[in-house]
Amino acid sequence: MKRREFLKISSALGGAAVLPSALLSGCAPFPPPPGSGKVTVTPTVCEICFWKCAGFVHREDGEAWKVVGNPEDLHSHGRLCTRGTGGLGAFLDPDRLKHPLLRVKHNGRQTFREVSWNEALDYTADRLKRIAAEHGPDSLAVFSQSVGAQHFRTLAKAYGTGSFAAPDYAQCRAAREVGFFLTYGETIGGQERTDMANSRCIVLIGTHIGENLHNDQVQTFTEAVGKGATIITVDPRFSVAASKSKYWLAIRPGTDLALLLAWTHVLITEGLYDKDYVARYTLGLDELAKHVAAHTPEWAYLETGIEPETIRRTAREMAAHAPATLVHPGRHVAWYGDDTQRVRAVAILNALLGSWGRKGGFYIPEQVKLPEYPLPAFPEPKTTWRDAHGGKYPFAYGGVTNELIAQSSGPNARYKAWLVYEANLPVSVPAVADQIRRAAAELELFVVVDTMPMEVTGYADVVLPECTYLERHDPLRNEPRQRPSLAVRVPAFEPQYESRPGWWIARELGVRLGLEKYFPWKKYREVLDWQLRQVGSSLAEMERIGLKTFPRRNPEYIGAGEDYAFPTPSGKIELYSRQLAEQGFDPMPRYTPPEVAPAGFYRLIYGRMPAHTFSRTTNNPLLFQIMPENSVWVNPLTANDWKLQNGAYIRLKNQDGVLSNRVRVRVTERIRPDAVYLAHGFGHRDRRLRLANGVGASDTQLITQVKMDPIMGATGMRSNFVTFVVQEA
Amino acid sequence: MVRFAMVIDTRLCIGCGDCVIACKTENKVPEGLNRDWVVEITQGRYPHLGTEFRSERCNHCTHATCVEACPTGASHYWRDTNIVLVTPERCTGCKACIAACPYNARLIRPEGYIDKCTFCVHRVKQGLDPACVATCPTHCMHFGRLDDPNSTVSRLLASRDAFRLLPETGNEPQIYYLR
């Protein structure tokens, strides 16, 4: 409803002065209308996922009321998603970590004792000092996720380690970043640089926008749908996005690269590619044409199960809308062990369509030039995460969680201490359950900083309870986007229980370790204010407005015929990659057929759901109410073979004999008969998570095989198969 | 009479449930209860499928059987509009309205009285959209006046094919779904 339309309501109903209805006011036992008390508003940046939408926390008469989006924000356009709207649940969750915990032996059994902050911090600092003296500070490995990790990275760098790893690298989007970097010399970035609001054709390959509720990804996608853009969805499952599509290609799992090569074949052989763009900006078309010559739609049909005519028709449709055709780069792409190469094929396809740097394709992002708070130089670490890779993964730009975990136990263990921030390793990293157990037994120090009693805290020696994002300051949000902007997170509430902000915990440890010079401030707000003053704002201003937008310095798109240099070695878009060839990899993506499922087994596919962010929110008391558990999606033909009843509990058993929690069957036409689907994040196994414990099945637990991408170390997770165990549920 | 309506584009709805959470926080709906909900309907056989998502709630009928069924006058229209409200002080919790509602849109609060979607009348009074409409990340929901031919909702209904739930009841429901 528009404001103008409302004005007419007022006149029709006799003016606002006589409202509200007398019947509704002044009755103590019944709740008054929402918002009729004293309302206070505090700006925040959402932390329920990595999209980091700017918003406002509303309190009414001191009580938590609601969180809403900031209308100036490009990430949210004033609309938070399901999870962000439910963000108060993180604050209100009665199962939160409330006190520092120290592992002790009591009557021969290991247990946690609630201790004071002084005891927990002194213990941690003393151990860290001893470990630095005995093994060197680079024997500390840091696993982290999310924006608050910055405080602990500063601490760890000052301490002297260079070993950092985050699940969002090997388990998620790193293969995408490397694939695009090798092709364009630039990455996609945490905020995908997709210009979907202007796209006329969008191609989604296994990416399920709408179920992954990355806020303005969804908003721009549905805007394109509303404007009649052609959507082509490639997915073994009839995803929500598929239900909005003109074409759903129900591909045989693991064969996406065959389809991509066939599309490339059609664009080249039919001359449908952007000839000017390709001639002006790319390198290696001849080699590419030769490479895909044999990859006809007829060849791809035998691999993918997609009709040759459909492959041709969809390729032509992509070309017809180019350059406003976006072959979406996806996000979690760690699937089959050749993920960098598959993403390269996506990058190449976009180059042929001329969509990089073009309206409706990929825009050129900009961020605010924000100075870092001045700190002394960090000591040079003797070893880094790269040493843990042992010469593997030459194109890695970050530590591979699985490699660092593997080198944390045994006689030659590289790591003696772990600092884990907001990363629930047993649930987010596949195929390392035993290694985490061994590491926990052997590490001399295992520290976890978290807001919730996640599984990983159960292995720790010290648990340091952080307050939630609604109770703390954090580093400024400065994401590369269409328009540069800064957003600030201001605490709306005092830290609850004994929890403390991450910046305070990191600083207190730093002071105890003699590293105070890396924390030359008393409160983090001093850092924020200093940074904001360098760009003409202040914390006082930002505490009022929450978000400030800055002008762009350069155009958002590459101009027609512009002499544009790409930051690759050749200055061109590299269809043929000499960098890959020099390291002994295929210079152009080569297809390998997927393995065949054992008899009676089905390929396990997993994904997101809009109500939750992985396993982090499944215990959130607000979000739990709309999605308490997951179910396993099974095609009716498969269900019939196994006599599976819709809604009944069964268990899943994988190819290595691992048995899941009990999980409900969802018999649905929305999935291929040769695959099953689980929403990720369920099946928690920690009694302290009173809502989520034991509810639903964990895909991570069933992913005991990973295929490492030799180029950069992504853990391909879609090579696992499950069968049904009906009688044990 | 001022006729308020909600127009929801099923082509855009993704069934994310944001409308449900936004309603629960905005209106402080007790744990385990909700005033709106999402329905998913899949039709066809693999691989020829269609899935529709619908955000549902009280239809704020212009001939509301719940208002007629209420013996105490607790269920009533807000002023000269079709917004159906319940006055808790007058509600005895007899549940006659629950039996009379074709949409199962009413709920019993722990205190014993009946609760339901108010179209966020406290926001409408300020010229704001209901919380569900204001938060929807797909922009599939619209709210406004159907007695105004130039309102967004009127123009959407004039230009697109729409349907209502159970129109055969004669209740004249005021939630419209665009196909």
Structure in words:
- The complex is a heterodimer of chains A (729) and B (179).
- By secondary structure, chain A is of the alpha/beta class.
- Chain A has three domains: 233 residues, Rossmann fold (3-Layer(aba) Sandwich), CATH 3.40.50.740; 171 residues, Dimethylsulfoxide Reductase, domain 2, CATH 3.40.228.10; 124 residues, Barwin-like endoglucanases (Beta Barrel), CATH 2.40.40.20.
- Chain A contains 24 helices and 26 strands.
- In chain A, strand 1 and strand 2 form a beta hairpin.
- The longest helix of chain A is centred in the N-terminal third of the chain and has 19 residues.
- The radius of gyration of chain A is 26 Å and the shape is globular.
- The two termini of chain A are 50 Å apart.
- About 2% of the residues of chain A have low confidence.
- With 179 residues, chain B is α+β, with helices and mostly antiparallel strands.
- Chain B has a four-stranded mixed β-sheet. A two-stranded antiparallel sheet of chain B has the order 2-3.
- In chain B, strand 2 and strand 3 form a beta hairpin.
- The model of chain B has no long low-confidence stretch (mean pLDDT 97).
- At the A-B interface, helix 1, strand 3, helix 7 and helix 22 of A face helix 1, strand 2, strand 3, helix 4 and helix 5 of B.
Q: In the CATH hierarchy, what is the architecture of the largest domain in chain A at level 2?
A: 3-Layer(aba) Sandwich
Work out the helix count of chain B.
6
Question: Which outline of chain B best applies?
Answer: globular
**Spatial separation of the terminal alpha carbons of chain B:** 28 Å
Rg measurement of chain B, Å? 16 Å
Main interface: chain pair and counts = A-B, 70 and 63 residues
Rg measurement of chain A, Å: 26 Å
Regions of chain B with pLDDT < 50 over 5+ consecutive residues?
none
The number of helical elements of chain A comes to 24
CATH architecture of chain B: 2-Layer Sandwich
Indicate the low-confidence ranges of chain A by residue numbers.
Answer: 14-28
Label the structural class of chain A. Answer: alpha/beta
Oligomeric description of these chains? heterodimer
Query: Topology as H/E string of chain B?
Result: EHEEHEEHEEHHEHEE
Largest sheet of chain A: 7 strands, mixed
* Mean pLDDT over the residues of chain A: 95
The assigned structural class of chain B equals: alpha+beta
Mass-distribution shape of chain A: globular
